[in-house]
Amino acid sequence: MTQTTGDIGALLRRVQVMEDKWQILELIAAYGPAVDSGAADATAALWSEDGEYDVDSGMLRGRAELRAMVGGAPHQGFITNGSAHLIGLPHIEVDGDRAVAIGHSQLVLKVPGTTADFRVARITANRWELVKADGRWQVERRVARLLDGRPEARELLGGVGTGSERS
Amino acid sequence: MTQTTGDIGALLRRVQVMEDKWQILELIAAYGPAVDSGAADATAALWSEDGEYDVDSGMLRGRAELRAMVGGAPHQGFITNGSAHLIGLPHIEVDGDRAVAIGHSQLVLKVPGTTADFRVARITANRWELVKADGRWQVERRVARLLDGRPEARELLGGVGTGSERS
Amino acid sequence: MTQTTGDIGALLRRVQVMEDKWQILELIAAYGPAVDSGAADATAALWSEDGEYDVDSGMLRGRAELRAMVGGAPHQGFITNGSAHLIGLPHIEVDGDRAVAIGHSQLVLKVPGTTADFRVARITANRWELVKADGRWQVERRVARLLDGRPEARELLGGVGTGSERS
Predict the structure, then answer these.
(1) Which domains are present in chain A?
(2) Which residues of A touch C90 (CB under 8 A)?
(3) Which residue intervals of B62-163 are DSSP H helices?
(4) pLDDT band at C21; cut points 50, 70, 90
(5) What is the pLDDT of residue B163?
(6) Nearest chain A Cα to B15, which residue?
(7) pLDDT of res. B149
């Protein structure tokens, strides 16, 4: 192997890691628009077929339960009244075909019966466990806990920098 | 063409796409600081010369109207009283010299007459249509709609993943 | 030097700049989770040994003072009651081993004594001055000012696009 070929091999791996990060960033960035537009299929497709969304308000297992959540009365009530699922800047650590992203999210809702009064309904700690399969990143498990003082929400956020990659 | 030259050509295109994404991310990230600092020229320069900002509160056409918005009494009232135009993580799809970014934004204002009481004044759905000209990305059209339950705001957010690039 | 070697050298520099941006993005993305989980050491490690955090509520000089802030009664009161330090999308400009990131942040707190009533306690203008040492980016100085109408907060946000790199 020549020096040049070796250089290119190393460069290809560095480029691949950054492409992975972009795909993960966009996967996470797609969540808010998907749920707030009521796109049940697009939301479910962010997860793997049997992926989990473990949120304090209920455990969702697999794409069918994710679709049912988006189509269900509580969520439809939010979006037809006015809602924004804002996703904070995630901290992403990639380790081959697995990755962990940690960050905040925020749910802002219109106060029912008002024209344009909004309130912060939730601040949430998130841990996204992601896998790459067939060249595409998906959510294997998302754990989300309300930041209302409960220790487990703080513990979720404490996982930054404990993976194999250091940023 | 040798194998190595071919490899480099493919690699160059992958690197170029990521540079485009960074430039788009930074273009969008520049909006909030530009408007909240009252920088009329810097805000207008994010758009192309005849770019549009189609927001529910009014249609702005071209840089002169963008500059006028930033310099106008309502916006100056916001920023001298205390305001944050927070831009959510955008979902970006690049297709050559064109791109679409979709995401939320949030306007937080100080309640006039208070020292430090803040309220969420808006949650907004955004669709940014971007073009690259002379090596620089600019906003050709930004459509923004209040997330107060109106269907067209949800429809704007529903555009994720419908472009030519899939993430 | 052959054409190919020259190409690779230029490509390596472009890849390096993007790796730098990712590391800076992740450094900034790590701040919110670190403080909201109460991780005093992880928070302090984002700064250089004698780095500064110049915030309107007090000047912190060096890692020991940063650790003390996270461990102190006011901050512990926030996080055991429920808090989210949300970091907005930063605008990053890299110039070799130095960088400047400008953006908003937002502090949302649970209203004490309530189950899940949240309020926006702060909207803040941020300027992060970063340095790369031993291959790792760190915060040399972060200046943060409340967006309550004070001119100096707007001036902090006005620094976008004034560095050597244009996006």
Answers:
(1) 3-157 (3.10.450.50)
(2) 89
(3) 62-71, 73-81, 151-157
(4) very high
(5) 45
(6) A15
(7) 98
